[in-house]
């Protein structure tokens, strides 16, 4: 691991590609140049002060070194600035493009629904099949655009969360019902278990449902051939804790540190057979953390995964519990 990190530090070409700058502009390269200059400068000043017994020469050589270091420091700052600007522009571009795509995709989906519900009698089986496929692709595009919009909002720090009263128990029940068809088609048994009592929280209803939906559908998606997904809801002091446990393909240990990074998809055996963007967990983690909770996981390759998240119990309920 350490060896790999050190090698990566010295792979200037890779760093330049990742940052979109030239090799001589990469911070690691410039830091090394700076180090070499400092060592050479110390040596140079030492030699100058030994050979020339004149304070002017020492001052001039020291000033030249300071000027050189100042120039290199400036290069580093301007590289970081240009990378930050490019990153900001990219986020704005994604946000604008996703907004523009949202309306035509919604129209397309709405028209497909209209075609199916009102005019399907005149269509052949093949035509209906094609319409269903287009509608399915429209749904996928809609989800992707929503994910891109949420990602851009998170990156810009503008993901606004509503404050709704949520009964987490009811929400999980509803979501499990809506995932039943997918679970059956994937040969997955869905099991739910709750602690006694209510699970009332104050958070953004739509977005917490996105978090749950993402974690449950991932557990089903990465199960392999068949298996079981358990959803466990518990109370832990002032928090509610949800655990989604599966006995699926798991996540290779070497890749676990990168799970939750934007666009990262682990290289598990069914990656290529499943749809995905690597944005779901990034968005889920940010929503949970912004709602005052935390999200983490444990996973063993070929054994399964457990994804956990916590959220604070609503203040009203807390008062009742402490009465
Ligand atoms: P994706 O759209 O790829 O599912 P996510 O952000 O939801 O994106 O998940 C990121 C990656 O984490 C997935 O590509 C997968 O490799 C891994 N992953 C997430 N949940 C599970 C799980 N329950 N079992 C195994 N791997 C998982």
Throw out a few tags for this protein.
5-stranded mixed β-sheet; Heat Shock Protein 90; alpha+beta; two-stranded antiparallel sheet; binds adenosine-5'-diphosphate; 323 residues
Task: Work out the strand percent.
Answer: 15-25%
Helix fraction bin: 55-70%
How confident overall, as mean pLDDT?
Answer: 87
Structural class: alpha+beta
Q: What string, H for helix and E for strand, traces the elements in order?
A: HHHHHEHEEHEEHEEH
Number of domains: 2
Which outline best applies? elongated
Span between termini: 52 Å
Task: Flag low-confidence runs.
Answer: none
Bound ligands, each once: adenosine-5'-diphosphate
Within the largest sheet, what's the order of strands?
Answer: 2-4-5-7-6
Count of β-strands: 7
Q: What count of helical segments does DSSP give? A: 9
Rg value: 28 Å
Give the helices and strands, then pairings.
Elements: H1 2-10, H2 12-19, H3 27-51, H4 55-118, H5 125-156, E1 164-167, H6 168-185, E2 188-194, E3 200-203, H7 205-221, E4 227-236, E5 239-246, H8 280-290, E6 294-300, E7 304-312, H9 315-322
Parallel strand pairs: 2-4
Antiparallel strand pairs: 1-3, 4-5, 5-7, 6-7
Helix pairs in contact: 3-4, 4-5, 5-8, 6-7, 7-8
Bound molecules: adenosine-5'-diphosphate (ADP).
What does this entry show, briefly?
This protein is an alpha+beta fold.
Describe the structure.
The chain has a five-stranded mixed β-sheet with strand order 2-4-5-7-6. Strands 1-3 form a two-stranded antiparallel sheet. It is elongated, with a radius of gyration of 28 Å. Helix 4 packs antiparallel against helix 5 (125-156). The chain is α+β, with helices and mostly antiparallel strands. The protein has two domains: 1-159, no CATH class; 164-321, Heat Shock Protein 90 (2-Layer Sandwich). The protein has helices spanning 2-10, 12-19, 27-51, 55-118, 125-156, 168-185, 205-221, 280-290, 315-322; strands spanning 164-167, 188-194, 200-203, 227-236, 239-246, 294-300, 304-312. Bound molecules: adenosine-5'-diphosphate (ADP). Adenosine-5'-diphosphate binds at residues 214, 218-219, 222, 246, 248-251, 259, 265-266, 268, 271, 276-282, 305.
């Amino acid at each position: 691991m350490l060896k790999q990190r050190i090698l990566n530090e010295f792979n200037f070409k890779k760093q330049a590609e990742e940052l979109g700058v030239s090799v001589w502009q990469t911070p690691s390269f410039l830091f090394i140049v700076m180090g070499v200059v400092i060592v050479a400068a110390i040596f140079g000043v030492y030699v100058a002060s030994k050979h020339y017994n004149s304070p002017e020469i020492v001052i001039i050589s020291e000033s030249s070194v300071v000027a050189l270091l100042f120039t290199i420091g400036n290069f580093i700052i301007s590289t970081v600035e240009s990378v930050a600007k490019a990153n900001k522009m990219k986020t704005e571009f994604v946000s604008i493009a996703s907004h523009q795509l949202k309306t035509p995709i919604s129209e397309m989906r709405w028209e497909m629904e209209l075609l199916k519900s009102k005019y399907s009698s005149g269509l052949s089986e093949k035509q209906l099949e094609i319409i269903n496929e287009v509608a399915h692709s429209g749904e996928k595009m809609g989800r992707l655009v929503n994910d891109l919009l949420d990602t851009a909002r998170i990156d810009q720090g503008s993901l606004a969360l509503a404050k709704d009263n949520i009964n987490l128990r009811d929400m999980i029940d509803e979501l499990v019902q809506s995932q039943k068809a997918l679970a059956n088609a994937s040969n997955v048994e869905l099991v739910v278990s709750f602690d006694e009592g209510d699970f009332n929280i104050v958070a953004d209803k739509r977005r917490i449902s996105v978090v749950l939906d993402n974690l449950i559908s991932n557990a089903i998606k990465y199960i392999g051939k068949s298996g079981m997904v358990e959803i466990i809801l518990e109370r832990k002091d002032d928090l509610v804790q949800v655990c989604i446990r599966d006995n699926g393909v798991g996540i290779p240990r070497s890749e676990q540190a990168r799970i939750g990074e934007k666009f990262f998809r682990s290289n598990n055996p069914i990656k290529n057979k499943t749809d995905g963007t690597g944005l779901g967990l990034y968005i889920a983690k940010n929503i949970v953390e912004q709602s005052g909770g935390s999200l983490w996981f444990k996973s063993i390759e070929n054994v399964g995964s457990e994804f956990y998240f916590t959220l604070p119990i609503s203040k009203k309920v807390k008062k009742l519990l402490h009465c």
